[in-house]
Amino acid sequence: MKRTISFVIAGAILCMAAVSVRSDHPGIILNEQPVPYAATPERGLSIVSLEETKKESRIESSSAGSDMTGDKALLLDPAGSTLESRFLVPAGYRRLEKPAGSLQGYLRQYSMKPDKSPVLLYDGKEKKRQDVHAAVFAMPLTEGDLQQCADSVIRMYGEYLWSVGAYDAIAFHLTSGFLMDYPSWRAGKRLLVDKNNVSWVQKAAYDDSRESFLKYLRQVMVYAGTLSLEKECTRTDLSQVLAGDLLIRGGSPGHCVMVVDVAEDESGNRCFLLAQGYMPAQEFHVLNNPLHDTDPWYYSNEIKDTVVTPEYSFSIDSLKRWREFNR
User: Model pTM?
Assistant: First the structure.
C-alpha cells in the first residue's frame, strides 16, 4: 500500500508511474533542446517520445472520416501504431495544429498496443470491464498497485517535460501542499517526512541520470494524487479544450481523465478523445463514448452539463488545465 502523510494524504487517489527512456537520435529542436523520435517501446522499456512528420506544421484532415453515428471501422485504423494513426477524425473535422515539440504532438505520436488489446491490471490480470476502451497506450505499468488515475496523468506531464529538456519545469505539489521539484531532487535533496510536515534534506550528490529521475517520479506519485493535481489546475472552457486538459475531481474517491487529442469543424465545434488510468492500477487507455458506441470521440456540441464516461461522470466545470500549460 502507499504510505500516507497523516490526515492530508488520506483520501487522495494516488497513482504511480514507471517512466521512459530517451533516445540519442535527434529529432525536433525545441528551445535548442533535441526531442527524440517516437518508436514502439521494446520489452523492458517504458515510453515513446515525439516524432516530426510533414503533417505537424498544419491542420490535418482525415481522408477516411465518418459521421458521429457511422461505422467505427471508419474511425479506427487497426494497423495504426500511434494515437494519431489509430484514430481517424470524423467527417467535417480536422485535427488542431500540433506545433513541433508540443504536448499535443507528443500525445499523438505515442505508441499504442495492438488493436483489441485488453486493458491489464498491475498484476497482469485483465480488467473485469473490457468494454470501456477503444485502445491501450503502450505505457508499461510499474510494479505494484501504484499507477492509477492521477499518477498516469502526472507521468505523462513529467515524461513530456523530460523529453523536451524542460527539466526546471518538472515540479508537482504533494497532497500536503509541499512543492516537490525535480531540480531540488537532481541537486541531491530528498524528502524528510515527519507526520504532517514535509521538507527537503540534503542526502545525495548531484545526479541527473535517468535512474534518478525515475526515483523522483516514484516519490511524487507516492505522495500526490487527484487532490493535489486539481489544486494545480485552472478551469477552462469546453470551446477551448486542448490536449493535456483534464476532467478532474479531487477527493476520496476522486478521479481524472485526460484529453489526448482534439479536432475542430469549420464552425469551431471541437471533438476530443479521453484517456484514463484507474484503480486498481491499470494500463492507460483511450475511452469509448457511451453516447455512441461506434464512435469514441466526445463532441462539445453534445455536452451540456455533464461529461459521461464509461466509468465516471464529470460536471462540465471539472474541465481544467494543468498549471504548466496555462501559458
Answer: 0.79
Beta strands in the chain (DSSP E): 28-30, 33-35, 60-61, 93-95, 133-136, 171-173, 179-181, 189-194, 197-202, 233-235, 246-249, 255-265, 270-276, 285-287, 298-299, 306-308, 313-315, 319-322
Note the pLDDT tens digit of each residue in 22-78. Answer: 232 222 223 333 333 233 333 333 333 233 333 333 334 443 344 444 455 579 999
Single-letter code of the amino acid located at 32: E
Q: Which three cell numbers mark 244?
A: 493535456
From the centroid of its chain, how far is CA 121?
Answer: 17
Phi, psi of 258 (to 5 degrees): -115, 140
234 forms beta bridges with 321
Instruction: Give strand pairing partners of 112.
Output: 137
**How far is residue 273's CA from residue 30's CA, in Å, rounded to a whole number?**
26
Domain enclosing residue 303, as ranges: 1-327
- Does residue 229 sit in helix, strand or coil? helix
Count of domains forming the chain:
1
Which H/E stretch holds residue 231?
helix 226-231
Per-residue model confidence as pLDDT tens digits over 158-186: 999 999 999 999 999 999 999 999 999 99
